[in-house]
Amino acid sequence: MLHHGIGKNLIDCLMRGLNAHYIPKCAVDFRMDPDEIPRHDGGGARLLSHILVSFAYFAENEQDWKWFGEWLARDFLFEQQGNLKGIGRKGQNDKPVNLATFVFDTKLM
Predict the structure, then answer these.
(1) For a surface tag, which of 39, 45, 81, 91 has the fewest beta carbons within 10 Å of its beta carbon?
(2) Residue 86 to residue 98: CA distance in whole angstroms
(3) How far apart are CA 89 and CA 2, in angstroms?
(4) How confident is the model over 52-63, as pLDDT tens digits?
(5) Among 3, 103, 109, which residue's Cα sits nearest to residue 53?
């Protein structure tokens, strides 16, 4: 079920809401209620300098965060800033969980 563009549209809408200078890349016009004036667009009084995305993944699935990070870098200009290994455990088998962190500098727009 990968590669349908859903994640790209979600990140695109998120970036548009957080960064007043962001130029949307996707063709989907996101509206909570089509009859209302949009209230989720960027351009508020507070300007953000950076946007952080944290991605939790099972330690055994290194390819997941690498793919995710390459996608964020290629399509949205994020840069990986960290990868915390073994910060948690999850599931019946007590699998180790890692956390990758990606940063977008809003001055790049």
Answers:
(1) 45
(2) 5
(3) 26
(4) 999 999 999 988
(5) 103
